[in-house]
Amino acid sequence: MTGIAMAIHGVYSAILMGLLAVIWVLLRNLEGSRAACRRERRGREEMESYTRMDARPGRDGNLRVLAERVCGVVSSRSPFKRVAMLVRDADGHLYIAANAGMNAASAAALDGWASRLMEAEQQGEEGLAGGVRLGAKSMAVRPDDRAGLVVVTPFSTTGGKMAGALVVCATSVLNVQRRAAEEAIVAIEALAVKLSRAMEDAELMNRLLRAEKLAGLGLLAGGIAHSLNNPLTTVMGSADLMRETSAEERTRRHAEAILHEARKMKETVEGLLNFWRPSVLKEEPVDIPALVRGLGEECRPKLAELGIGLKVQLGAGTPAVRGSRGRLRLVMEHLLNNAVQAIAAARETATARAEDVIRLTAGFDGRTVQIVVSDTGTGFREPARVFDPFYTTHAPGEGSGLGLSVCYGIVREHGGEIGAFNLHPAGAAIVVELPFAEVIAGQPVVIGEVA
User: Which pTM was predicted?
Assistant: First the structure.
């Protein structure tokens, strides 16, 4: 009986152990299912928060406000608690617009990595080469030997140019299974797509609003100019006649003063007419790199006398454009003069300054020829208004405020775009985009007016 009892006891024990094992497996599966549900719920909530988030840049295209909003939401909703957003300024440099949870060492390492990335791009190398691919377009990289791993998710324009990137510190996440890391980055990639589309839409809308506003201002300016032109001609003719025929010295002096002021008014009227009604020109092939190089060589000695450096960078393979060489040169002369004035203003307000530099670059992105004039000056107080006629930050009598308006008119008559941007951490840039079209020698075409 004892043997039978022991056998039965062994059977019961084995059954009990089996039941316990089954219960343990079920509990593990249940816990795994609950964890998966929690991850799915968190992922859904994260994606919903990104969907609801306002991805529009701040006023006047201020990306810092947007970057702070993005970093705050990603840090609070995703598994990544240390987040940064890189954006590209008008000069083409990537910088940290905002971050959440990053210490100074991590931010410095990321800044250095962004600089190396830009150098690689300028040399024609693949910027994100050398990392580990995660997801559809994200890369895990190590900014330097002291920093941990980060995941870089770039966002690009429809033309394929990298406009910026979301960067998350992900050492802890990458220590788990690769599949889990790839799942964690899906929502970040979706947010990057949303950011790129929102930024492009905002830029397009700003261009449309600016074109509409300036078109209205142009009609007003043209009407004023036409109304003033004939009376001014009469005033100048009468003053000139008085100066030539009067026997009194005082009368001749007064007539000369009238002529002097009338000529200044005439110049203003001509500026208004140039803004409102672009000239009709015979086009010619304009070698932009040669134009930029020649202007740089002429201006460098004069700028050196003012203590301002000039750096000229020309992209390889930049083609010629159709247009007026003289008027395009006038645009660049205006922009260089504007940059000099900005640096002079910065010198008056700062006690200690780094090197004062103007950068003049030209390149081709496959669709447009781009000319960028940037400086280390004070930046624009209101970038959206700098092309408005008579808008100026100078004291009365120091400028009419028509220089950049004339530039706008000339660029538009060439079918191009012009925009003003502030740079990080200081300075400003004017970007001119001219449409590329094959130049056929011996077949000049009239450039028409642009509405």
Answer: 0.66
Sketch the domain layout of the chain as residue ranges: 1-45, 53-198, 209-277, 279-447
Contact, 287 vs 322, CB < 8 A?
Answer: no
Contact between 444 and 407 (Cβ < 8 Å): no
CATH number of 53-198: 3.30.450.40
CATH 1.10.287 fits 209-277, yes or no: yes
The percent of the chain in helix, strand and coil, each rounded to the nearest 5, is 55, 20, 30
**Do residues 174 and 183 make contact, with C-beta atoms less than 8 angstroms apart?**
no
For the domain spanning 279-447, the CATH number is 3.30.565.10
Report pLDDT digits (tens) over 32-89.
666 556 666 666 767 777 878 877 776 666 788 888 888 988 888 888 888 999 988 8
Q: How far is CA 445 from the centre of its chain?
A: 33
Query: 209-277: same fold as 53-198?
Result: no
Distance CA 179, CA 190 (A): 17
- Where do the H-state alpha helices sit in 53-177? 63-77, 104-122, 171-174
d(CA 225, CA 218): 10
